[in-house]
Write a structure and sequence with these properties.
about 150 residues, single chain, globular
Length: about 150
């Protein structure tokens, strides 16, 4: 059983789903507070809630999901900028998608947010894995060695 749990915890997709769930919770909880309790405008609520979830997501994705090898400000800052840039793209998808589903299609705000969130989650994983948290390739074993055949 311990081996199975260890295997699951070593799978970046499983880790992403878990921490993505927490990130989604941060997004939905803050969105709900802003729209339902504070009665903020839809797009402003959405932008703030997505921004909060982006900050939370960078921390958990870099540390726990993709296990970033970046060390120090010099390596982390460009990684953070790529992460935020990729999330701004999906934020635009999310803000437009929620607006479209609420204002044009006439869905409930939370239902619209849930539908768009599915698209955003998949897109964020792909961008994180292949654009932001790229593993450094280790050099081949014989690189730089003179070998004679």
């Amino acid at each position: 059983m311990k081996d199975k749990i260890r295997q699951l915890s070593n799978n970046s997709v499983i880790r992403y789903l878990f921490f993505g769930g927490l990130t989604t919770f941060v997004n939905f909880a803050s969105f709900t507070v802003f729209t339902k309790l504070l009665h903020m405008e839809l797009n402003l609520s959405n932008v703030i809630s997505v921004s909060l979830s982006i900050l939370f997501a960078y921390f958990v994705n870099s540390r726990f999901v993709f296990r970033s090898e970046a060390r120090g400000f010099r390596e982390r800052f460009p990684e953070f900028l790529k992460f935020v840039s990729s999330r701004l793209v999906t934020m635009a998808i999310e803000v437009f998608g929620v607006w479209f589903l609420v204002k044009i299609v006439r869905l409930d705000e939370l239902v619209a947010k849930l539908i768009v969130q599915g698209i955003v989650i998949v897109t964020n994983y792909v961008l994180g894995k292949f654009l932001v948290f790229i593993k450094k390739k280790s050099p081949p074993e014989n690189e730089g060695e003179d070998t004679e055949e």
